């Protein structure tokens, strides 16, 4: 009669040795990874009270981005800002000011993601009151002149107000389009004698 436990012992030992070999190989390979920091999201530069200006073809300031604090991250070449202000200057229309508590700017500066207490303010003129739009977040493309959000939006101009969900902003054509659930009240400003 054969004893199965004595015949299984060598097979169990081979399985344990194979498992230990696999574990040892994976441990050695994990130690060979480069540790140059490219896979970490740690800042490599910090700036305080900075100003960035972008100029158009004629040399006029197209927009200005300021913030009291910026951190640059080398892994994705992005920057994170605290309390940013983005001002878009237009030669034939009032300036647009975008503010938020936080922002992330992509590597080439083509997209700015703003969040927490975002406001978009169109400066007033002699014949139009200042307009302020508030929302929790906004994605802006300053060079293209576009911005959008899928979040709730509240717009005020004097005593008039309008709310909706989602918005498309075209700075080139001076349009602000609400996407859905739009309601509001328009109060005509009184003429001054």
Question: Can you summarize this structure?
Answer:
The protein is mainly β and 193 residues long.
Break the fold down into its secondary structure elements and pairings.
Layout: H1 4-31, E1 45-55, E2 61-73, E3 78-82, E4 85-90, E5 93-99, E6 102-105, E7 112-122, E8 131-141, E9 146-157, E10 160-170, E11 175-185
Antiparallel strand pairs: 1-2, 2-3, 2-4, 3-6, 4-5, 5-7, 6-7, 7-8, 8-9, 9-10, 10-11
Structure description:
This protein has one helix at residues 4-31, and strands spanning 45-55, 61-73, 78-82, 85-90, 93-99, 102-105, 112-122, 131-141, 146-157, 160-170, 175-185. It is mainly beta and 193 residues long. The protein has one domain: lipopolysaccharide transport protein A fold (Sandwich). Strands 2-3-6-7-5-4 form a six-stranded antiparallel beta barrel.
List keywords for this structure.
mainly beta, 6-stranded antiparallel beta barrel, elongated, 193 residues, 53% strand, 15% helix, lipopolysaccharide transport protein A fold
The CATH architecture is Sandwich
Ends: how far apart? 118 Å
CATH superfamily: Lipopolysaccharide (LPS) transport protein A like domain
Stretches with pLDDT under 50, minimum 5 residues? none
Rg result:
28 Å
């Amino acid at each position: 009669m054969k004893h199965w436990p004595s015949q299984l012992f060598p097979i169990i030992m081979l399985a344990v040795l194979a498992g230990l070999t696999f574990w040892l190989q994976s441990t050695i390979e994990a130690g060979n990874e480069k540790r140059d920091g490219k896979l970490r999201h740690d800042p490599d530069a910090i700036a305080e009270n900075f100003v960035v200006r972008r100029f158009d073809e004629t040399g006029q300031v197209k927009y200005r981005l300021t913030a009291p604090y910026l951190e640059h991250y080398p892994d994705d070449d992005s920057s994170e800002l605290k309390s940013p202000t983005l001002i878009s200057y237009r030669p034939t229309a009032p300036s647009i000011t975008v503010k938020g508590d936080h922002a992330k700017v992509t590597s080439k500066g083509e997209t700015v993601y703003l969040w927490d207490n975002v406001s978009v303010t169109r400066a007033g003129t002699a014949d139009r009151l200042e307009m302020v739009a508030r929302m929790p977040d906004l994605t802006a493309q300053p060079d293209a002149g576009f911005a959008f959000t899928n979040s709730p939006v509240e717009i005020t101009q004097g005593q008039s107000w309008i709310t909706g969900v989602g918005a498309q902003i075209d700075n080139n054509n001076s349009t602000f389009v609400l996407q859905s659930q739009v309601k509001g009240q328009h109060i005509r400003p009184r003429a001054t004698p």
